[in-house]
Amino acid sequence: MNNKFSEILEIIKNSNRILVTSHTSPDGDSIGSGLAMLLALNKLNETLKKEAEEKNIIYIDKTLRFILEDETPKNLKFLTHSLLIEELKNYDSKYEFDLMICLDSGNFDRVGKVQQLKTKNTKVINMDHHISNDRFGDYNYVGSLSSTSEILFDFIKEANIELDHGIAEALYTGIVNDTGNFKHSNTTKKVFKTASELLEYKVEPNEIIKNFLDTKSMEKLKLMGRVLSNFKFIEDQKLVYYYISEAELEELKTSKGDTSGLVELLLSYEDASVSLFLKEDKGYIKGSFRSKYDVDVNALAGLFGGGGHIKAAGFKTNKPSHEILDIIIKNMSLGGR
Ligand SMILES: [Mn+2]
After folding, report:
1. Would the N or C end of the chain have less CB density within 10 A of its end CB?
2. Helix or strand run (H / E) with residue 192
């Protein structure tokens, strides 16, 4: 069961040292929702301080941090307040957080090493939109909306925290990320309503798209070329895939995050029903699925302990790539589609 937004707000109000975090290999939604939460809580703090002053009550400012295991990707640094995002390796305080807010993460492992900042006194709030979410928090809100950013929009509204340019820009970027710039099946009427309200705060869609989606490094473009030239297609399962080894990633001098979006690119092949991008990563293989029609890739990713959404899901496994493919092909043949 979900907790109510009002319950989550109460916990936040009663906490003094709050850590906001999200998943490793951050994307527009994890960064967007996290930054929006940080900025909104900062405004909430100001409001509470003012209220206390008016009543002549002593108020202790909340400590608010947004910490991720990984560095902010280059194409998200355009966000006005991106400098507020901290990388775990640069964080050396000995704070004990009393509250940890995990966003856009289907399970606690997704936040990576940031888990280490949780002590036995840290309560956990889990806010997410993945159907596979295992409700790992002490307080949970899992909604089937386009993005965690869309959930955050609803939360901020209900908390009566006024939107501003920084928050709106972050949320808009999150929604763009998860809807593929308003083209995936999760693009509802409400998504457009939300986006249109965000535009009231001088968010400029063309600027965001230019910076976020249409700015790619030479290495990333060469990687796209490699994948497009060499992808494989399995006719029977209508499965298009590519496996990239660490050696190949190194040869192309790619950086972390350069592989994002490739799985969508593969799905655009006219005959494909499902796309799969496999990437070797420190002794493991990370897989990313997309589905065009009715194949449930959340279920396929579940075969490897992963998950996500019906049309977009991921997993991480120590199985070799040929074995992964065998399992997927077998299960797709068994009526996975
Ligand atoms: Mn998301």
Report:
1. N
2. helix 189-198
Write out pLDDT tens, residues 15-55.
Answer: 999 999 999 999 999 999 999 999 999 999 999 999 999 99
Q: What SS3 state is found at 68?
A: strand
Ligand 1 midpoint to CA 148 (Å): 5
Report the separation in Å between the CA atom of 236 and the middle of ligand 1, taken as the mean of its atom positions.
31
Report the separation in Å between the CA atom of 104 and the middle of ligand 1, taken as the mean of its atom positions: 5
Cα 147 to averaged position of ligand 1 atoms, centre (Å): 5
Please tell me the class of the 218-336 domain: alpha beta
Ligand 1 centroid to residue 177 C-alpha, Å? 8
Dihedral sign, CA of 14, 155, 204, 223?
A: positive
Question: Can you give the pLDDT at residue 154?
Answer: 98
* Residue spans in the chain of domains classed CATH 3.10.310.30: 218-336
Angstrom distance (rounded) from CA 8 to CA 29: 20
How far, in Å, from the CA of 277 to the mean position of ligand 1? 18
State whether CATH 3.90.1640.10 applies to domain 5-212: yes
Give CATH 3.90.1640.10 domain extents, the chain: 5-212
